[in-house]
Amino acid sequence: MSPTQFSLFFITNRFTLTFLIFIFVASYLIV
């Protein structure tokens, strides 16, 4: 795995994690 692929994977993974946390907080606030 090249460094470019690794950084891209890390950024995508982080974005997904942030997105999931955002949805969790939003649903908590709505309820």
Automatic annotation (TrEMBL):
Superkingdom: Eukaryota
UniProt keyword list: Membrane, Transmembrane, Transmembrane helix
Chain segments annotated as transmembrane: 6-30
Protein name: Uncharacterized protein
Protein species of origin: Arundo donax (Giant reed)
